[in-house]
Write a structure and sequence with these properties.
The structure is a homotetramer. Chain A is mostly helical. Chain A has two domains: 139 residues, Four Helix Bundle (Hemerythrin (Met), subunit A); 91 residues, Helix Hairpins (Orthogonal Bundle), CATH 1.10.287. In chain A, 65% of the residues lie in helices and 0% in strands. In chain A, helix 2 packs across helix 4 and helix 9 crosses helix 10. The N terminus and C terminus of chain A are likely disordered. At the A-B interface, helix 9, helix 10 and helix 11 of A face helix 3, helix 8, helix 9, helix 10 and helix 11 of B.
Chain lengths: 296, 296, 296, 296
């Protein structure tokens, strides 16, 4: 994977310009090594956070009635600023298409699209909040390369385990489809299980131990099946945890731990069970008798 | 366990025919090595998925009113097709009874039975969804032997731990029966705890942290008992997890573990870092240099 | 700990009689080595199970109206039988007091007390279900010594970790008391948080992720605090789990695992990456090329 | 970290007086080595517990109507006593400012402040419960130095993992903000999702599997998104747990681990149990004797 801490590496991806105003713009927008670059990034983060608060506040009816015009104007101001920034990014790199199709490029586009789409579909207005993903830049701003590597480690771990995750997910999906259908048959629409999709939704709330309670089984047989599902969903967490802990505790007891055997000559203690000579002065140790040992 | 990647192995179970039309049918239906065999499997998966969607859609009232006749016809079409396939499977193997009693054989039968049973018991109609288990074939279709082995590993792990699981389950069952009964006595039918079975159902929703909320304790003493049960159910997950993590962190920080230091005289290795004399022959040990050792 | 598989060991605790009718009674009631002893135990388990079902059924109103007299008579029959058995146990051992104060002795007494207490306090009738603890004998009945040792292992693990558990519990209790009080101040009785104990009960339902929903925060500030508590309660499970998994995945990548390197001379495979000579025949091995190896 | 079991160490922090009435006061209040010191601590714990119960009881309406005057008087008595104690602490150490800014110093101040603040802001009265933090002293009272080290270990573990925790939290926060916003758009205020902050609150109850049920999705698309969030929140616990358990079981079953077997010719160690020839020089290895070794 590209070494993100090295600016040379990054610029290879989208093409750092050679000279001129484009190079100057690039160092400010894409890099954070110069003071201007750092200032730009901090203002960007601040603007993103304020715009998120504005969109959230605009959805609260009490605030909307009083401040909608202010919010509306601010929102368009932000969108225009971010659009200008986006175009600046596209123009100053040598391979604009690579940037536009990269992860951060798509995120930056999604950050400004909703405001424009909302002209056509007003109800999508709130999706402006998607620009929260732009905050992933915050780690670069504060030169926190370790956080970046933590994120990458997290992502890599997920990718490496993708087969196990898929198998696990498929088993869970089959269980909830079958159990949901069974509950639909047992309880019926009269008790809230109005259709198979609804029953499957209930089965998921139960197996994942969320338990909203908007739909609940009313019949005795339904409650019995629900009980089994709940024990299954919770047990899937509890049983492995218990097994792992049992293994761990057992291993703590077994390994060739230093014991409290004491040397008669120099009184050093903490020799291994199999030791014959003192580790500190070389004198012979008395024979080792286990005293029935085990125990955490 | 049979090596499922080898076709010779599989056919030994049900008996691969030697020649003729039965062999031709077998290679298409049971094997996925020929193009016809793969095509058959992909169509089969598609048909199963479509039939599941049809049954689910038929349970949604809005869709049922408009499309019931279409759904009904499609459902019988699928059932007839799957029945023909089932009979084909039975006729082309040499030991039909072994197939019929194997896991996949039973699943294939359960996939067509509900439609016929629904003629007698209309309310069982929805159980057609059980045929989702047929989708376990999807891994063979796409030659995903690794997924099959992941499933088998999962199953094997469960079987190996069955004693621990049974002990754990029995303790949980005893706790919920006793606690459920106590809550029945403390809260009473007036507060929603209408009978002991109902109270046990509530106890299970509480211990597994699902918490539907259809039944909740109203008295102070009842809420106190409920609080203890909640801490028990959640703690059963949190405490072992915490212990395991503490162990892990401890090992990273503090390993006065025997090392690979080797004595020059007697060649015994495995001395503690602080040892000065050999534990086996008493000779002086060379000084210990750490190589930046342990852990993450 | 006493070796429970050896009958001589067990009898040392309460005193196995030497001879006569008391010895005969002892071998039937306390031991399961003779056929009469096994028969006794199986009938005992069956009787306990039936009595539990009777008490549970008697609490269901629909069944109670129709069968109360039957249930009532059966319940007294069981209690009389169990009382006779209890007295038999006391009379046939040499140290009846030791039996009466042992775990099983107390359980056996609690199994018959509620029925008598219910003569004075009718509402305690349901506590007869406490006799479910007698079912712990089921493992001895079926000579399942391994299950007994699993139980003991579970108990031993809990005892060994008692300090960590107490510390953890005390932290959780302090958090819920403080957070519950804060929510009481923020939300107030008007929003369901009627008193500090009630608010602490709500805090426990939230931190343990049970979430009944009988009490919920209505104010924005209250919901903010609730959000932090939910993340705390769920995070206490998720964060350690994630850390442990990260550690594990890291270690899998590191250690010198046997590979699939094969010796050309004798075709043995499974040599370590650093091996130069075959472990089986001593011939030189070809150089090792990693193929991008590690991971899931 | 300071060794808290050594009184000399502790006094270095705030300054143990040299002589006179201040030294006498110090040994009673801050130390628990003398009988007077222990008595003081036990009375202090008892007083704290009683004052907590008084504040909690005062919030229960039924009790408040009958006993408010008693509670009120007791509360002021406690506050006066604790204030006197606090001033005593400040006066008898040599560096009062260090004590006032230490953890215990702040806790002791927060324990008496609310009662005074409640004169100005009556609704803060209940925050007196914050003094429950003073109960952290209980471990010193009973000379439980091991509990103190357990607490410190817990704290140290959290500090060491702070980067991972921050990364994890930030991912969770981004997910709930985006998902909450999406649900706000999909469901709308008509279905309970009255604003973006409210929807984010719902998203947190769902991902943390708390599931109050005060807000629930009503549309099919909303329930679909909710299902994915529930599987995500529960899966974040279940998947790593399953992976860890699978790893553990794998290691138990299959350890062709390198051992510490050493070749006599070239002194290379770390051969597999089944190896016959040295992997480094090809010489024959001595036979392998297991010492009861690896794995549970």
């Amino acid at each position: 994977m590209t070494d993100l801490s090295s600016p040379n590496a990054r610029s290879d991806r989208w093409g750092k310009p050679m000279r001129g105003w484009r190079l100057w713009l690039y160092t400010i927008i894409f890099e954070a090594d110069t003071r201007a670059g750092q200032l730009f990034d901090r203002w960007l983060i601040a603007l993103i956070l304020v715009s998120l608060v504005v969109v959230a506040a605009d959805s609260v009816e009490a605030l909307q009635r009083r401040f909608h015009l202010v919010f509306f104007s601010l929102e368009w101001l932000f969108t225009v600023l971010f659009s200008v920034e986006y175009i600046a990014r596209l123009t100053c790199v040598r391979h604009p298409l690579r940037y536009a199709t990269s992860f951060f490029g798509i995120v930056d586009l999604l950050a400004i699209l909703p405001t424009y789409l909302a002209l056509l579909f007003p109800e999508l207005h709130a999706l402006i909040d998607v620009r929260v993903l732009r905050l992933l830049r915050v780690f670069r701003v504060f030169k926190l390369a370790e956080y970046v590597s933590e994120y990458q480690a997290l992502g890599a771990a997920l990718v490496a385990s993708r087969r196990k995750i898929l198998v696990f997910l498929s088993v869970v999906l089959m269980v909830v489809v079958i159990m949901g259908t069974v509950m639909y048959v047992v309880e019926g629409p009269r008790n809230g299980f109005t259709s198979i999709p609804t029953s499957v939704y209930w089965a998921i709330t139960t197996m994942t131990t969320v338990g909203f309670g908007d739909i609940t089984p009313k019949t005795d047989f339904g409650r019995l099946i629900a009980s089994m599902m709940m024990l299954l969903g919770w047990g899937t967490l509890a049983v492995p945890t218990g097994i792992v802990t049992a293994e761990m505790t057992f291993r703590r007891v077994q390994p060739p731990q230093p014991t409290t055997r004491t040397c008669h000559e120099c009184l050093t203690e903490g020799h291994l069970p199999q030791a014959i000579y003192c580790q500190h002065c070389g004198a012979p140790l008395p024979a080792y008798q286990q005293s029935g040992g085990a125990g955490a």
